[in-house]
Every structure is written in C-alpha cells, then in structure tokens.
C-alpha cells in the first residue's frame, strides 16, 4: 500500500482490513449525506475514522501540523 511505502501507515498494518474499514466508512458517509447530515458532521466522522488508523508517529506529527479549512471557511 502506498501509505506504507511513504511511511504514513504502520508497515505491520493489515492493509486488507484497513481498506474494508475505509470502504465501510465511505459508504456510511454517503448514507449520512443523503439523510441530510451537513459537511461538519461528515468531517467529524472522517476525522474519527482516520484517528483509528495505525499511523506512524511521523504521519501523526504531520497531521497535527496541517490545518484543514473548515466548511465555514469555504463560504
């Protein structure tokens, strides 16, 4: 998996299980969006999903430094 080659994901992580998790989260977010959940709620779901990934210390450090604009910044 590319994220393992680039040092973002623990090299011992089971990529098949992670891909299944991400697909489930993606489909779930589609359902939530159709049900009327707003962008902020969907971002929270995505953030929680990514928090659960076995990231390396290097990747966690980078993600703390990067700031993603919120939905309110887009207007």
**Overall spatial form:** flat
Provide a count of the helices: 4
- Name the structural class: mainly alpha
Overall mean pLDDT score? 88
Strand content: under 5%
Characterize the largest beta sheet: strand count, sense, and whether it forms a barrel: none
**What is the H/E string?**
HHHH
Query: Would you count the extended β strands for me?
Result: 0
What does the radius of gyration come to? Answer: 14 Å
Unreliable stretches covering 5 or more consecutive residues: none
Describe the oligomeric state of these chains in a short phrase: single chain
What is the share of helical residues?
55-70%
From the N-terminal CA to the C-terminal CA, the straight-line distance is: 35 Å
Structural account:
With 75 residues, the chain is mainly alpha-helical. The chain is 61% helix and 0% strand. The protein contains four helices and no strands. Helix 2 packs antiparallel against helix 3. 0% of the residues are buried. The model has no long low-confidence stretch (mean pLDDT 88).
């Amino acid at each position: 998996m590319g994220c393992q080659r680039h040092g973002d994901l623990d090299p011992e992580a089971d990529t098949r299980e992670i891909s299944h998790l991400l697909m489930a989260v993606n489909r779930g977010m589609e359902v939530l969006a159709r049900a009327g959940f707003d962008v902020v709620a969907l971002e929270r779901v995505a953030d929680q999903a990514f928090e659960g990934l076995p990231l390396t210390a290097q990747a966690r450090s980078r993600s703390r430094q990067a700031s993603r604009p919120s939905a309110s910044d887009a207007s």
